[in-house]
Amino acid sequence: MPIYEYVAVEDGTVLELLRPMKDADLKVEDPEHLGRTFVRRLSTFGLGSGGAESAPASHSTHIHSGSCGCGKPNGGCGRG
């Protein structure tokens, strides 16, 4: 089941709900009972840049994950 994000129109509060696809657009009850209206929003999870799959094919094979063997965190050496 996918995780959907819903945002409150009134104050921008965001909820994440695990729902079947067929229920994605059903009404979301306000968990705090404040009468807010929640609408589904496009989740941007995994759509950013900088991932290994977004690196050009000619890029070196030096990959950073957490910290690099070079001792610098997350691309600090300029090679990944």
Summed up:
The chain has 80 residues and is mainly beta. The protein is 0% helix and 19% strand.
Can you tell me about this structure?
The protein has a domain at 3-44. Helices cover 0% and strands 19% of the residues. It contains no helices and three strands. Strand 1 and strand 2 form a beta hairpin. Mean pLDDT is 75; it is low at 53-60.
Uncertain residue segments:
53-60
Anisotropy-based shape: elongated
| Straight-line distance between termini | 33 Å
Query: DSSP strand (E) fraction?
Result: 15-25%
Q: Give the helices and strands as they follow along the chain.
A: EEE
What structural class do helix, strand and pairing data support?
mainly beta
Number of helices: 0
Rounded to an integer, what's the Rg over CA atoms?
A: 19 Å
Number of strands: 3
Average per-residue pLDDT, rounded, comes to 75
What composes the largest sheet?
3 strands, antiparallel
Question: Considering DSSP H and I runs of 4 or more, what fraction of the residues is helical?
Answer: under 10%
Spatial sequence of strands, sheet with the most strands: 2-1-3
